[in-house]
């Protein structure tokens, strides 16, 4: 079997499964092999029920001690019972498996393996597998891969497919010369792929992962280097030379004075804009450091010089927000700002395309809709991407390619140390906004348990009575988006009952349509709703400076990067702000992590402490929560491998690199895909 053969050759993959795989971007045998597990279940021995903790996958044995109940909630069939052993008992729940009712009987002895979570405050085993004695012993201590799933496909299906081909495939894509494998202690590619799916022990896994992380960084850096090579000649003929004058006039009218770091950054940007070499600049600044106004000045300069500028953001909510704030910034200027987002009607879009082409709009704010083929810019001089980790490098390139030497400005709040940033953003110059506006009061934090919730609600009421607003974040629910939506809606309902009647509560979750989200956000902007109950949808970039309380339920479920982003939604104005992290989880690790949040509001400090806590070699700690997502690597805990890959590329002679790239269609393909597909 060949690496690039279609997956339809794999035993057991029929037409239907193939379609689902294709949706997951798995087309070839190689794609399937490169679909790495996101984690592993190590099936351990049976534990006593009184030692069971939240968020653990465990095996228990006991008898069914309570009547078995089948309940229907909307379109969900929920089957529940209790399991008792000699130490304690625990509730067990299955979703949409009503046929189990005939399999489990009151008083029967069962072995169950599954994840424990908290439902209505009670430890509950959710959707466990029922094991026979034989199955139990056969799987003991085995590391079982857990793959990311999409609807219609089970872990078992992926596992079986991978297992059936892993020894059949001809690997002929070892690209890395022995010299480098030896120096950086890297195992062969083939062995790494085999062991990442089916490691016999932790050492196997660490070795395999090291090699694959190295590959990922190696190819990423190589791809960036190629990009840079192609770009060094990018020049422009834009006639921009009034930058400083425009800036000075604009900032005179601002209701605040800019920080030193903002001023320094704007000056760097102006220098770039006025040069005939095209700008490629990253602005890195913590949440709330005031990146938007910097981009607004750059766009103003471009527009007043007679050119177009675009701002690309990852969500429609953010697009609308930027659109409104730019209009406000430019209200004294003769500048037209346009909005272009996916949820607009075909007619609205057509009209916007026409206005853009006819140069009737100067600045266009939008989402992915901006890079659609149909958009023809009139004289595009500047592309700004905000919270850029959501966009591929290629998308940025695509937009820049619409103009002639278009300037590119990228803004990010991800706190990467400079040495790493230089490697990861190899094609960009870097400006850092390392200072918060001086009118800011540091956010006051607290980490508390469930018993504090009532006090927190009273506190929120007090803040709202003083004119402020609050966010409440519910955690994600793993089972499904539908349950998640229900969860958030229920929470909001009961919260509304707890709070006095003059307080209006809004709800925001991932299942809502773009238009609905827009309306909910608009109501919150306008203070028509005072509390916004939300999932992490609200995480990126939202700016409502009047909001002063961020309350996070189940704070232990979030990664530190995510908590920091969430907290960054408050403390954006002159009022004292607060972050209340609620957590009943008592593990040492959680305590330490939340303590870091409690102690500091500084994104760089948090990232570095987080890394110390997780340490290099932490296998799968952060991928679900970080901003920058590689397929398998973590830029923070794998920083040493990033350096290794960078060193290897520096050490390799041009001839060696040439040899690595040519003669290898596989890697060539990867490089092309890489620049397009990375979410960096
Ligand atoms: P971010 O860097 O997270 O994108 P924003 O640009 O949204 O932050 O700015 C956050 C808030 O701070 C906004 O309400 C903005 O008006 C305000 N702001 C920006 N710069 C200053 C400043 N120098 N002084 C006071 N407030 C500022
Ligand atoms: Mg922002």
Description:
The structure is a single chain. The protein is of the alpha/beta class. Helix content is 39%, strand content 18%. The chain is built from 23 helices and 21 strands. The protein has a 7-stranded parallel β-sheet with strand order 11-12-10-13-14-9-15, sandwiched between helices. Helix 8 (243-253) packs across helix 10. The radius of gyration is 27 Å and the shape is globular. The structure holds adenosine-5'-diphosphate (ADP) and magnesium ion (MG). Magnesium ion binds at residues 291-292, 386, 541.
Give the helices and strands, then pairings.
Elements: H1 15-23, H2 29-33, E1 39-42, E2 57-64, E3 69-73, E4 76-84, E5 89-95, E6 109-119, E7 122-131, H3 133-139, E8 143-146, H4 155-165, H5 178-183, H6 189-197, H7 202-231, H8 243-253, H9 260-274, E9 280-285, H10 291-304, E10 308-312, H11 316-329, E11 337-340, H12 346-357, E12 363-366, E13 380-386, H13 393-400, E14 407-412, H14 418-424, E15 429-433, E16 444-448, H15 453-465, E17 469-473, H16 481-498, E18 505-508, H17 514-525, E19 531-534, E20 547-552, H18 560-567, E21 578-582, H19 588-599, H20 603-614, H21 639-651, H22 654-661, H23 665-677
Parallel strand pairs: 5-7, 9-14, 9-15, 10-12, 10-13, 11-12, 13-14, 16-21, 17-19, 17-20, 18-19, 20-21
Antiparallel strand pairs: 1-8, 2-4, 2-6, 3-4, 4-5, 6-7
Helix pairs in contact: 6-7, 7-21, 7-23, 8-10, 9-10, 19-20
Residues 256, 258-259, 262, 285, 287-293, 413, 437, 439, 543, 545, 572 line the site of adenosine-5'-diphosphate (ADP).
